[in-house]
Amino acid sequence: EKKIAIAIDGPAAAGKSTVAKKVAKELDYTYIDTGAMYRAITYKALKLKVDLENPEQLHQLIKKTTLNLEQEQNGQKVILDNADVTEIIRNQQVTNSVSDVAKHALVREEMVKRQQEMAQERGVVMDGRDIGTHVIPDAEVKIFLIASVEERAIRRNKENIQKGYPSRLEQLKEEISKRDKLDSEREVSPLIKAHDAIEIDTTAMSIEGVKNEILVIVEKIR
Ligand code: C5P
């Protein structure tokens, strides 16, 4: 069995990280959530009041930033300059600003470089927006996960309620649609299905169902 790279891309809240974590656990692979990297730098930029429309300043900021994704039993811990930011980077302010930070070529260049270093050794499941198209274009398995906006908002709403966060379905639908639009229409590495990616519509599927479908695809390759 050879170690491979599995790229999982798709729009916001399509279940990428949930599924990617499970696939990684099953295969004993490293799970890498690239969205968390963009979120962490956005969090830092907001805290330091860096202008999110200024790519040079953001680039300087990233250069001075250490970002570590530590493997945990059920996912990953995000460490930003020695502080654990795993939870706080999911907040609404970061969620609603991250696409503005991620649209800059200078920001992406630096992030992609770091992500490619992480993926070099294979044995990785990486989730994001441009993994199959730019970060690991030679990934052995590429998955593109989609689901209806309605279903994605319902899932995120349930998740928020479980965590005890305030949550409104209508607002979530708007936020998810807006983020999809920004991510799909940006000039640099927009969210798009790689020509050789396998699309899975998870709208009517369970998490286990999606995981198993991906594992079947992986087994055919290995
Ligand atoms: O995956 P998640 O929803 O946490 O990603 C947050 C944001 O980071 C996305 O909406 C997108 O703007 C950006 N992102 C990106 N490229 C990636 C991963 C995330 O542009 N590979």
Describe the structure.
By secondary structure, the protein is an alpha/beta fold. Helix content is 51%, strand content 17%. It has helices spanning 16-27, 34-47, 55-63, 92-102, 105-119, 131-135, 149-163, 169-185, 207-221, and strands at residues 5-9, 30-33, 67-72, 75-80, 83-84, 124-128, 141-146, 198-201. The strands form 2 sheets. A 5-stranded parallel sheet has the order 2-6-1-7-8, with helices on both faces. The protein binds cytidine-5'-monophosphate. The site of cytidine-5'-monophosphate has 14 residues, from helix 2, helix 4 and helix 8.
Percent range of helical residues: 40-55%
Class by alpha and beta content: alpha/beta
Q: Uncertain runs with pLDDT below 50, 5 residues or more? A: none
Q: Counting H and I runs of at least 4 residues, what is the number of helices?
A: 9
Shape: globular
Q: Estimate what percentage of residues fall within beta strands.
A: 15-25%
- What does the radius of gyration come to? 17 Å
DSSP summary, beta strand count: 8
Give the biggest beta sheet.
Answer: 5 strands, parallel
Distance between the termini: 6 Å
Small-molecule components bound: cytidine-5'-monophosphate
Keywords: ATP-binding, Cytoplasm, Kinase, Nucleotide-binding, Transferase
Subcellular location: Cytoplasm
Organism: Paraliobacillus quinghaiensis
Main location: cytoplasm
Features:
222 residues, alpha/beta, five-stranded parallel beta sheet, three-stranded antiparallel beta sheet, globular, binds cytidine-5'-monophosphate
